[in-house]
Amino acid sequence: MPGSSIIDISLVKQLVIDAGRDELLPRFQLTAFSYKQDGSFITEADLRVQKRLQQALLDLYPNSAVLGEEMPEQEQAQIIANGKTCFWCLDPVDGTSNFASGIPFFSISLALIENGQPTVAIVYDPSRDECFSAVRGKGAFLNDKILDTSTAAHKTLSPCTAIIDFKRLTPDLASRIATGAPYASQRSFGSVALDWAWLAAGRGQIYLHGKQKLWDYAAGWLILKEAGGVASTLQGDTGFHAELEPRSAVAASSENLYQQWFSWIND
User: Domain residues of the chain, as ranges?
Assistant: First the structure.
């Protein structure tokens, strides 16, 4: 199995970038969509990117496995449960509803999971040609610029911009935020992977999501962590768990903001 120490991050990044440029951009606003059983969108682009990157990764690292969003859940579960200590976790189009609706906010998300933890992360936004990446212990980057949330100016919640997905919050929590938010303003963009990456880039300071899946957040979680951000579930679990069960997310660009945000949510 490949490990992060032998992964050519530049080569893998280029594979993801090329897939975004070749498979996503030419189909943007031109691709029909259908619905999956859970009601979410799927397009030809999702399938083409997954097939292309799965084959490319297996050609490079033939002893690895690829867990993709668009494969049967039984296959996903087998990859996690069959004893493999290392696999790629791929969301071929994170933000498919944006992509299908002509909204230029979507991405490809790819993470290498080793012993249950993400060690390599890539989130590529083809609309802006922005490639966010991280390697565990080696920092996070936007293209060639290092990301460091410790330089953020905000020290309290009141001037912060929040990235919040209201749809998946409990009615009580959503109502409390809507009627008495402790921050300046909020946004909801529609691509979980880019939400995490934008938080790492300082394009928001606090984050909340009630239900996201492994391929949504695996890469973004590492990028934010390597940039200096902090995250947990709504229950306060700060660990990363490679499992198919959806998880909530509370995050911030600094430990100080995280503690304030988490305390407010759980007040």
Answer: 9-147, 149-265
Q: Do 190 and 95 touch, CB atoms closer than 8 A? A: yes
Stated as kind and residue range, the H or E segment containing 267 is none
Fold held by 9-147: Fructose-1,6-Bisphosphatase; Chain A, domain 1 (3.30.540)
Identify the H or E element spanning 67.
strand 66-68
DSSP-H helix ranges across 34-102: 44-60, 73-81, 96-101
One-letter amino acid at 12 equals V
> What's the pLDDT tens digit per position in 247-263?
999 999 999 999 999 99
* Helix, strand, coil percent values for the chain (each to nearest 5): 40, 25, 35
Contact 61, 187 (CB under 8 A): no
**pLDDT tens column, 57-85:** 999 998 889 999 988 999 999 999 865 57
Q: How far is 200 from 17, CA to CA, in rounded Å?
A: 20
Q: CA-to-CA distance for 28 and 45, rounded, in angstroms?
A: 9
Exposure string over 130-155, b if 16+ CB within 10 A, otherwise e: bbbbbbbeeebbbeeeebebeebebe
pLDDT of 34 above 60:
no
CATH class for domain 149-265?
A: alpha beta
In whole angstroms, what is the distance from residue 191 CA to residue 182 CA? 24
- What is residue 43's three-state secondary structure? strand
DSSP string, 100-116: HHT-S--EEEEEEEETT
- Distant-in-sequence, close-in-space partners of 130: CB < 8 Å, separation ≥ 6: 124, 142, 143
Of 228, 154, 147, residue with least CA distance to 184: 154
